[in-house]
Structures are given as C-alpha cells and as structure tokens.
Input
Amino acid sequence: MDVGKNVNNINIGKRVACNTTSSCGECYNCKNWQISRCSNQVASSGAFAEFSNMPLSSAIEIPENMSFEVAAMTEPASCCISGIEMIEYKKDSKVLIFGSGIMGMLCLLFVKEKNINYVVVSEPNPSRRKMALKMGADFVIDPMSKNYKKEIEELSGDSGYDIFIEAVGNPILLAEGISNLKPRGQALMIGVHPKNSNLQHDLYDLHYKEIKLFGAFGRGDYFSSVPKRIEKFGLDKLVTKTFKLEEINKAIELTAKGSGMKYMISPWKK
Ligand SMILES: [Zn+2]
Output
C-alpha cells in the first residue's frame, strides 16, 4: 500500500474496505444521501487486481479482527441496508423474502435487527435454505415444491404479508411477491431487474391495495458505517471459498450457476 503526495502517510498499512465509487461530498446527490450517484465520480482502476487506486475517502478502516473476506461484503451490505431503511416496520410485521443469495441473506440479517419475528424466505437451493435458517429466518420454503403456493399462503395468515423483499431480480417473482402483500403492504426491489423489463401486475390491485413499491439502488451514505455494523453477523459463514486471482473465471462460473453462497477472490492467496 502507498499513498499520494497529498495524503498523510499515517494511512499506510491500515486495513480497509473500499467503496466501489468515489464521492465528492459537495454535489447535490452527495448532500442528499445519494453518494452512489455522485456527479463528480473519479474512475477507479478496478479491484480484480493486485493493486488498485482510489481516493482516500473511498477507503474505510475495518475492525481489527474482521477478515478481508467479510470486509469485502461491505458494499453489498451497504446496498441492502440502504434499501431496508426505506421500509417502515412494526413489531408484528410479516416479511417475505424471495432469494437467499448474498443480497437476500444480508437483507434477512438487517430485517431481523428490527426485532421482526416472522420472516419467510423462499429459495430453491437447499444449502441456501439451510443457511437462511442458520442466519435467523423463521421459515424457509422451496419454490420448486408441489405445495409451494399453499405453503406461502398458509404462512401469510388470512391477510397477506406486510413486507416483501425481492432479492433475485426477476420481474415475474416481483409481481408474484406483490400479489402476496396485504393492503398498504411494502415491496422492496433489492434484486437488479433487466433493463426494459416490465412489471406484469394488475395496476388496479396496486391502486386498490395502496401498495408501496421501493426501488433500491446504491449504498445511500451507509458505506463508512457498515464494517462495524456487520461485525456481529458472523458473515465468514457465508464465504464458500476464496480463490486465487488467476482462478477468477472458476469463481465467476460457480457464481453464475448459483451454487454455494459467496466466492471471494484474493490477489495475495498463494
Ligand atoms: Zn458528489
């Protein structure tokens, strides 16, 4: 690690998590909780490399005992908490989450922090369902099972769910989850939906039930506070394997297949 001539070299050797975009702190977006949309972003050199350069403000010191693998989850965790904080919670809220990949899992952890005791996670991968239970899900269901529709309805009780989090990025699943909401229910789009995709849902139903639909992009201004906030979650459990830099294609292939939880790339792994 090294620093530029205008940066105090006291920073050399610090263990940090790096924000993926820079922020000037001065523009309209930076001043309004939207640093991921900073108008004056400085391009970074990218991070799948042995060295990367960035402004000092993008490097956030991490807790002493935090592994770099967990620190690398600061970015997805910041996006999740930024979305999660848009929603209103009540003590008896029933929450439905579609998908327990890394985003669904982090949302689950942040929702449980709100003292919610009724979180249903729907996930086709059995090992991810098992992990969701370990991380605090109250119920898990398999969307591929025969009884799935019945299970999801039965678990919702008579009136439906209060909150739905779509953590897959599939417009069909988004519409399905919204149809499980009760009146004045809230839906959060954590998954990234394809460009030009449409919501196939009866708009009368959205109007009649007064559904609130929240898009969720970026990290708000949470990034710098997240390393400390995720320290207690035991996120090391979510790291399936750490690959060497030259094995990056293998890691991407496994991620694309949806197997395991989270694969990491370490430039210094021998
Ligand atoms: Zn800015």
Notes: The chain has a mean pLDDT of 93. The CA atoms of residues 25 and 207 lie 38 Å apart. The longest strand covers residues 181-189. Residues 23-24, 26-27, 29-30, 38-40 surround zinc ion (CB under 6 Å).
